[in-house]
Design goal:
With about 375 residues, the chain is of the alpha/beta class. The protein has 2 domains: about 5-165, 3-Layer(aba) Sandwich (Rossmann fold), CATH 3.40.50; about 180-370, Phosphoglycerate kinase, N-terminal domain (Rossmann fold). The chain contains 15 helices and 15 strands. It has helices spanning about 10, 35-50, 70-80, 95-100, 125-130, 150-155, 165-180, 195-205, 215-225, 240-245, 280-295, 315-325, 335-345, 360-370, 375, and strands at about 15-20, 55-60, 85, 105-110, 135-140, 160-165, 185-190, 210, 250, 255, 265, 275-280, 295-300, 330-335, 355. The strands form 3 sheets. Strands 3-4-2-1-5-6 form a 6-stranded parallel sheet. A 6-stranded parallel sheet has the order 9-8-7-13-14-15, sandwiched between helices. Strand 13 (about 295-300), helix 12 (about 315-325) and strand 14 (about 330-335) form a beta-alpha-beta unit. Helix 7 crosses helix 14. The longest helix is centred in the N-terminal third of the chain and has 15 residues, at about 35-50. The radius of gyration is 22 Å and the shape is elongated. It starts with 8 loop residues before the first helix and ends with a helix. The relative contact order is 0.13.
Length: about 375
């Protein structure tokens, strides 16, 4: 994979660079950006291009309904106040005029690429239009590299293409996570066992211990014939190839919210008909603490409980254990927006947590496949 650091500042000076970066951020009801973590991770590539005196065309998608990308553009400008950035919200057909007016070291933020139907279909005409704006393509939107869209794949096929610093680092760290050093420990949460089954089976082959948590653990209890009450259950349940695997680890206690709204720690077999499992329990944290302490490689995706409903304490406990392991020399990769949002609430500095991936679905797909369309096109 070709990377941006292969191009010197001299080679970039005056060049028009189409930068596909991360602009799909969460927005509050009043329209403000609520989390700029991904934007911060993408900033080094932007700053390098500006420092190199390139003319930077910044593109990305936002939302699913063609919403204006303006709130994200404003957040980006606020994050980098010393970088000359412009957002006009003009139709894509008028973008060439705006790009022609760019001076060296300036950035133009394009409107939401999903406003053109050619984006999601990887339409040739839209890809050609975007490619006409630049001399070089830089892909740096790791959360989107599993999408074969025009601004991710189509443009990259029409221009000399390079990975930005974010994608370069993501690939390096996730490749290491796909070949972990022993002893190794993986934590996988979330829901929908049917979509995560192939990855779970792969991790069971590669990792010494794989701990299943979140709503996926409910599927484990259900498959074992244990009561799950009102808990979220997937369409598909794990089979004996997973449940009986010697590397497989499941929670040994849970936090269950009763019909009265009160949360109580219980053994899985004690879950009542009106209970909803919302988190793991302290015995489970104690169980996996030794695996974390001994591990040289740790992969973590998915909080242990329904953090959006306030069930965050056990995720915070694990984050503390993982940070201690990282300080002790363990290689740590943590991903998924929910995971990072939950553990950041613990107040642990980012540098003490290891590598924080910007990818959610893209991270899980890369771990499973070892490549993705938006990565493959950079090779």
């Amino acid at each position: 994979m070709k990377s941006l650091d292969e191009l010197s500042e001299k080679e970039l000076k005056g060049k028009r660079v189409f930068l596909r970066t991360i602009l799909n951020l969460p927005i509050s009801k009043d329209g403000g950006v609520t989390d700029i973590f991904r934007l911060k991770q993408a900033l080094p590539t932007i700053e390098y291009l500006v420092k190199s005196r390139a003319k930077v065309v910044i593109a990305g998608h936002f939302g699913r309904k063609g919403e204006s990308i303006k709130p994200v553009a404003e957040a980006l400008k606020a994050l980098a106040p010393n970088v000359p950035m412009y957002f006009f919200g003009t139709p894509f057909a008028e973008a060439p005029k705006e790009v022609a007016a760019l001076k060296e070291g300036e950035c133009l933020i394009l409107e939401n690429t999903r406003r053109d139907p050619g984006e999601e279909t990887n339409g040739a005409a839209f890809a050609q239009l975007l490619a006409s704006l630049a001399d070089i393509f830089v892909g740096d939107a790791f959360p989107d590299v599993h999408r074969e869209h025009a601004s991710v794949v189509g443009v990259a096929k029409l221009l000399p293409a390079y990975a930005g610093f974010l994608i370069r680092d993501e690939v390096r760290e996730l490749d290491a996570a796909r070949a972990p050093k022993s002893p190794s420990f993986a934590i996988l949460g979330g829901a929908k066992f049917e979509t995560k089954a192939p990855l779970i089976k792969l991790l069971l082959e590669k990792y010494d211990h794989v701990f299943i948590t979140g709503a996926l653990a409910n599927d484990v209890f259900k498959a074992r014939g244990l009561p799950v009450g009102r808990s979220l259950i997937s369409k598909e349940l794990p089979g004996q190839d997973v449940l009986s695997n010697p590397h497989f680890v499941a929670p040994i206690d849970v936090t269950a919210e009763g019909g009265d709204g009160q949360a109580r720690v219980k053994k899985p077999e004690e879950v009542a008909a009106d209970d909803k499992i919302v988190d793991i329990g302290p015995d489970t944290v104690a169980l996996i603490a030794s695996f974390i302490a001994e591990a040289k490689s740790i992969l973590w995706s998915g909080p242990t409980g329904m953090y959006e409903n306030g069930y965050i304490s056990y995720t915070e406990n694990i984050a503390t254990l993982v940070s201690e392991a990282h300080r002790g020399g363990a290689n740590v990769v943590i991903g998924g927006g929910d995971t990072i949002a939950a553990i950041r609430a613990a107040g642990i500095p980012q540098e003490e947590l290891g590598f924080l991936s910007t990818g959610g679905g893209a991270m899980l797909e890369y771990l499973l496949k070892g490549t993705l369309p938006g990565i493959e096109v950079l090779k």
